[in-house]
Amino acid sequence: MVPSLAAVLLLTTSWILGQHPPSSTPATRTHTPGMNRITCKLVNYADPAQGQNLVRLLNAYAMDPLGGGTPLTETVQKNLPSRLGAVPHAFSYIAYCGEENGDTGTPAGLINCFEAFSTFACRPLVNVHDVFVLDEFRGQGVSQALLKAVEQEAQKRGCCKLTLECLSKNQIALKAYEKSGFGSYELNPEHGVALFLEKKLY
Fold first, then answer.
1. pTM of this prediction?
2. What class does CATH assign to 8-191?
């Protein structure tokens, strides 16, 4: 929801056009001494367990005050994984914490993305649609690990940049995005920064 025209900012990060993208793997791992091991795994929407984890995390996001404070409908929860799987160029990562000795670990965070296209660059881009970390895992680098996994996937796809939207008063998220290299989207400072608008059709 957009309470006002200035309530949501469009952020972007980009790479040099023509830069050779590094290779990436479906799972990326990070570990900080004294903190949980974080493993980010590309979601297989057709896998029931992974789909259940995705829905559980997104529902927690929806119930968070910054996600609107309302749970997902039963219809959304039932159909979301299969519907995402039918969307061309959709992909998601789930961050698992505490994975050791082959154990799955605990689902801690989620990021949902969609590949789009930049007409100015004539190259694909990735829009980060949802980013969420459960309360008990915040402050442990989960969001940075998820954003890094998406960046690697986007570079593998030859994308020119990442974009995302963030509520202007969500300062914790904004700082996390800035740390990851995102900044306000603008073409000329004299004309201001881009805003994210919506018009509901239902």
1. 0.85
2. alpha beta
